């Protein structure tokens, strides 16, 4: 069998935790920040765990992660 290719777009956006969960950065944090509250912007800085229904799709894109 040939080697599987890692999807480079996915590898830049997602990281796997030690327990096999998928981490991602929060969306809506890059621009139009003036109308967002300080609390909301502060919470958007933190990473989130990906929803369980999306994990199989991402793991397919990252075969060696």
Characteristics of this structure?
65 residues; alpha+beta; 3-stranded antiparallel sheet; 3 helices; 3 strands; 31% helix; elongated
Description:
The radius of gyration is 15 Å and the shape is elongated. The mean pLDDT is 96. The chain contains 3 helices and 3 strands, in the order H-E-E-H-E-H. It is 31% helix and 15% strand. The two termini are 19 Å apart. With 65 residues, the chain is an alpha+beta fold. It has a 3-stranded antiparallel β-sheet.
First-to-last CA distance: 19 Å
Q: Approximately what portion of the residues adopt beta-strand conformation?
A: 15-25%
Query: Which structural class is indicated by helix and strand composition?
Result: alpha+beta
Helix content: 25-40%
Oligomer: single chain
The main β sheet shows up as: 3 strands, antiparallel
Low-confidence stretches: none
Counting DSSP E segments of at least 2 residues, the number of strands comes to 3
SSE string: HEEHEH
Rounded to an integer in angstroms, the radius of gyration calculated over CA atoms is: 15 Å
The geometry reads as elongated
**Overall average residue pLDDT:** 96
Give me the side-by-side strand order of the main sheet: 1-2-3
**DSSP helical segment count:** 3
